[in-house]
TrEMBL record:
NCBIfam families: bla_subclass_B1. Residues 58-227 form the Metallo-beta-lactamase domain. This is beta-lactamase. It catalyses: a beta-lactam + H2O = a substituted beta-amino acid. Belongs to the metallo-beta-lactamase superfamily. Class-B beta-lactamase family. It is found in: Periplasm. The keyword RNA-binding does not apply. InterPro entries: Beta-lactamase_class-B_CS, BlaB//VIM/IMP-1, Metallo-B-lactamas, NDM-1-like, RibonucZ/Hydroxyglut_hydro. It is an enzyme of class 3 (hydrolase).
Amino acid sequence: MKRLFPLLLLAVVAACNNKSETSRSLALETGTLLVTPVTPNTFTHTSYLQTQDFGNVACNGMIVTDNKEAVIFDTPTDDSVSNQLISWLTDSLGYTIIAVVATHFHNDCLGGLNAFHQHKIPSYANAATITLAARDSVTIPQNAINDSLWLNVGNKKVLARYFGRGHTYDNIVGYFPDEAVLFGGCLVKEIDASKGYLGDADTTAWSATVRQVKAAFPGVKKVIPGHGVIGDAALLDYTIQLFDIKK
């Protein structure tokens, strides 16, 4: 019995650990919204956009949390799914959403912005994004970012910063230094991705812009692309090579 007890204890611990890992592997799934953990205080939110050229596209955003506060990068693709995300964070988890940041003017970034405004959540975007949203007669972010902005979230800070043209000429990225997580948005491609939609792109500047991102955050550990699978700094290298004008 003395020999069996340690083995039984290990089996129980292993089973508990496996259950714990499973419960942490998926934070929320509704069919139209998926929230998954990246690090202890960062998550991706994924919603879906029906497009003419690429079909039903999964679109990523980032949630940064600390001390029951949250900052969200990019809205879900429409107001209905944005309301799901807001309700989950505020009603189910008891979080206060400090801000939402749109990383460029396309629908996969601000398609659900009106829902955030209805909940009195302040929105931020590159000044150029505000201009482009007004041109397109869509919901306009409230506060302009000129080059960069640090936002408080709990006892930590998260950065929104413009590095240059790429997927669009207004695209910005988000960086959470405490956990070395970069939200590249549509400026950064998942491994083996195609060049994707280029209708508003500057393909000659894209590689140089991502090189600047890589140089600014040399300690990055996790990189979240606008579409596809999370990775590390290899996503930056892949994107640089994909749009390298010397090739």
